[in-house]
Amino acid sequence: MRHIDSADGARVIAAEILAARTRPFVLISTLPDGSFAFDADKVAHDLDHDAEVVTITTGEATYALEERLPPKSHVFNGAARSYPPDFGADPDWQRSILRFPERDAEDLIEDALAQMVLRLTEAPVRRTWVCATVERISGTSTGNVARLADGQQVIIVADGLPSSLTLADGLDEGGRVEGWLTGKDFAPVPEPVDLVRFTEGVVTLARVTKVTELRAKLTLHPLAPEVDLRRRAVIPGVDDGDNEDVKVNDVLRVGETVRVRVVSEKAGIGLTLIDVGEERPFVPPLSILRGGPPWLRDGVHAAEPAAATASAHGGEPTPVAASPNPETSSPTEAPVGEPAWTRELAHIRDELAGLKDAFVRLGREVRAGTELETLDQLRDENSSLSEELRRARAIQRDHKALATRLRQELRDARSLVTPAQLSGTRTDRSAWPDEESWFRHEVIGTWAARTGASDKQQYPLAPFVIGAGFLDSVREIGDRYTDKVLRGVVDALTGRAAEIPARQLHRLREGPGGSDPYVTRHDGALCWRLSLEIGAASARRLHYWQVPGGTIELSRVVLHDDIEP
User: Which secondary-structure segment (H or E) carries 543?
Assistant: First the structure.
């Protein structure tokens, strides 16, 4: 435990008080004779390492401390404070209650404990791997319901699914699917894309993703590379000069599910719509979700925007053919009167769009399995963690503000609890030999009514004298203010005024400026000012003197703008 007895040392601890800290900072001053009113060793022992405890000599050191700290936030003449760790960020003296020498060390210890920074930790998320049966499919990413083996209903969520996958494509009412259960949220896991099963010659289903007059693009899975099909792979007999007037977009449209045969190509898997008869072996399409049904089914097509369909066919949308097999489709005539250059321009645009898609896929494929992909994943994870950290900090600020407000409300409630209204129990002035005797009796009665049995030893009335002009000032403002004056006097005599923000307790200055010197009497008494009213016209204030030795001298009750002691 450090002791400060010089101006230089006081400036050092002032900087520590205003700096960002992790622990409360307790500062205990000596009485004018050098002794301590608070047991500093007990405070340090009880707080252990949870707070920094420092003592300071009243005199040169406390004057230097007052110069470096915000107004009304220093200590002297045996008083003590505990400064919260973030006091420098919000240096409001009301956040650091001044404990007068008459108070018990336990109050100071409780102040420091209440200012300890609580580090919030989030409980780890508990996930369970389960298999569920799909009960309801909404067709969107929300409203999908499944049931677990124990009968519990859960909500199917798309957490962890790539944006190119949709729940509707991977679910089937009555079907089963596997994934992680967190609370009531069930997140199915994507099935790895495995194209090894599609060997040459087998037939399966594919989804049409792009169509032009001369070619089409199909995919075996939303995450698999698209396969480019030319006219010869869509329209039979093209190589032999047959069906020359039939275009690819006469046969296919975007979103259709079609039967395809797997063929070998140098670039990998190739597809064709020719020769897909029932005699060939059929391999079911891939599943989107682990344990789920195939994502494609015969006759089930994806919805296609009307504008895209019209653009692909050069006019109004054409309906989906009942059978996607080109061998049974009757070719339609090409638009009449369309210039050749417009068809070529449309073809070039389609080719450019296809190249752009190819570059995007190539970028993904190049990065897959490399440090670049790892970097992308780390960036995504970093963004997610940053957002979680921001939310955690916001929650911590809210909890801290709530705790501070609740502590203050508790103090205010304790100070304002009254068993009965004093206005009905006050005695008549005429029953007393003089006005001072009456007022002293009313002060004691107010203290007895406003202080509970358990608090009377903690908040005793300090010895007090009534100044020469005090009763005249009370009489001048009228009887309707007597209750407010009595309550303010009791708060000043018990030391509670420093704990109640509404009292706005502060030392009186010689002028209205914040840098004007404090009012001090020739005998060393300090003049204090507290609020009897807030938000009222000409709000009343109480002035009193704190005399060396602990006696309180009541000075005057004044209006807001009156700064005379």
Answer: strand 541-546
Model pTM score: 0.36
**Measured in Å, how far apart are the chain's first and last C-alpha atoms?**
39
Which residues on adjacent β-strands are paired with residue 185?
A: 155, 182
CATH of 422-558, one of 3.30.2310.20, 3.20.20.80, 3.90.1110.10, 3.30.950.10: 3.30.2310.20
Q: What is the DSSP letter of 180?
A: E
**Token pair in block for residue 125:** 């998320």
Residue 497 in 3-state DSSP? helix
Q: What is the pLDDT of residue 416?
A: 57
Contact (CB, 8 A) for 433 and 470 = no
Nearest to 505 by CA among 473, 460, 543: 543
- Per DSSP, 236 falls in state T
**Strand order across the beta sheet in which 203-211 lies:** 227-230, 215-219, 203-211, 257-265, 268-272
> Which tokens hold the place of 92?
């409001």
Q: Measure the CA–CA gap between 356 and 151, rounded to whole angstroms.
A: 48
**How far, in Å, CA of 565 to CA of 562, rounded?**
9
At 382 the three-state DSSP class reads helix
Q: How far is residue 38's CA from residue 105's CA, in Å, rounded to a whole number?
A: 6
Tens digit of pLDDT for each residue in 492-527?
999 999 888 888 899 999 888 878 899 999 989 999
Task: List the domain boundaries for the chain.
Answer: 2-114, 128-188, 203-368, 422-558
Residues 377, 380, 355, CA angle at the centre, nearest 5°? 70
CATH of domain 2-114: 3.40.30.10
Tell me the C-alpha distance between 65 and 15, whole Å.
10
* pLDDT interval class at 26 (50, 70, 90): very high
pLDDT tens digits for range 525-547: 999 999 998 766 678 999 999 99
Using pLDDT thresholds of 50, 70 and 90, give the confidence band for residue 303. low
Name the β-bridge partners of 156. Answer: 144, 186
Residues 6+ away with beta carbon under 8 Å from 309: 253, 254, 317, 318
pLDDT, position 103: 78
**Nearest one of 493, 480, 404, 479 to 448, comparing CA atoms:** 493
Find tokens 């508990």 and name the residue. 126
Give the CATH number of domain 128-188; options: 1.10.3520.10, 2.40.50.140, 4.10.640.10, 2.130.10.150: 2.40.50.140
* Of 115, 12, 89, nearest in space to 56 by CA: 12
DSSP, residue by residue, 320-380: PPS---TTTPPPPPPPTT--HHHHHHHHHHHHHHHHHHHHHHHHHHHHTTSHHHHHHHHHH
Classify residue 48 as left (phi > 0), alpha (psi -120 to 50) or beta: left
pLDDT above 70 (res 368): no
In the predicted model, is pLDDT for residue 313 greater than 70? no
Contact between residue 101 and residue 550 where contact means Cβ atoms under 8 Å apart: yes
